[in-house]
Specification:
- By secondary structure, the chain is α/β, with parallel strands linked by helices.
- It has one domain: Rossmann fold, CATH 3.40.50.
- It has eleven helices and seven strands.
- Strand 3, helix 5 and strand 4 form a beta-alpha-beta unit.
- The longest helix is centred in the last third of the chain and has 17 residues.
- The chain is globular.
- The two termini are about 30 Å apart.
- This is 6589_t:CDS:1.
């Protein structure tokens, strides 16, 4: 547990916060952002700290309270990534997204979809066909900042690296378009904090050198 707080304070730099239920693929998204394209090289690229599960997290209020407690230990937050496995807008997802917009603001939100079909992962237009009008309206409200993180069960081979790279470049583009909280030294670090919600909450703190994150 102490290592977690050490990681959160590394460099006192801006952070990327990933929010999603346990098992949705937050750590995988962090891997891909750093250029690690498999589940097995995470420790070679950055440090991960896991916190024990909390079975009592069932509402956005609890998620937000938890974020407020953790984020205040980080210097600034650059972007919040809401991670979902569903391509359709469920009532629970709609509630969480609307609550995130209310509590966290629109300008730093990005939605990341995981575990999607091959075609929907490769072609943004195909993925868009699955969105209903309500979902499209919500996505427009955050300037259509959404991407699909490729499923490693489908793209976890040599041929899949190109798709992973393309989609992560789009995500990095969205992140770079968001105004940074403040300027820092060229050797600043990014913290990626992954929190879960709804049923179970897991915290994963991932420290990534920005040179790796933004220049690959």
């Amino acid at each position: 547990m102490n290592n977690e707080f050490t990681a959160l304070n590394v460099g006192q730099e801006p952070a990327i916060v990933l929010i999603g239920i346990k098992g949705v693929g937050k750590s995988t998204v962090g891997n891909m952002l750093s250029g690690a394209y498999t589940e097995y090289n995470v420790k070679e690229r950055f440090e991960v700290h896991d916190e024990s599960d909390d079975d009592n997290v069932e509402s956005w209020k609890q998620i937000n309270d938890y974020l407020n407690e953790k984020v205040k230990k980080i210097h600034r937050v650059h972007a919040y990534l809401l991670v979902y496995a569903e391509m359709r807008l469920t009532p629970a997802n709609k509630h969480h997204i609307e609550s995130a917009i209310k509590d966290l603001g629109k300008r730093r939100l990005i939605i990341v979809f995981t575990k999607q079909r091959k075609e929907a992962t490769e072609e943004r237009a195909i993925m868009e066909k699955n969105f209903n009008d309500d979902f499209k309206s919500i996505l427009r409200s955050i300037n259509d900042r959404w991407v699909v993180a490729p499923n490693l069960d489908i793209f976890g081979n040599e041929d899949g690296k190109k798709v992973i790279k393309n989609n992560m470049e789009k995500l990095k583009e969205f992140i770079s378009e968001i105004e940074r909280p403040h300027k820092t030294w060229w050797r600043w670090w990014y913290l990626v904090v992954a929190t879960g919600g709804v049923i179970v909450l897991v915290l994963v703190v991932i420290v990534i050198k920005s040179k790796i994150l933004m220049n690959e």
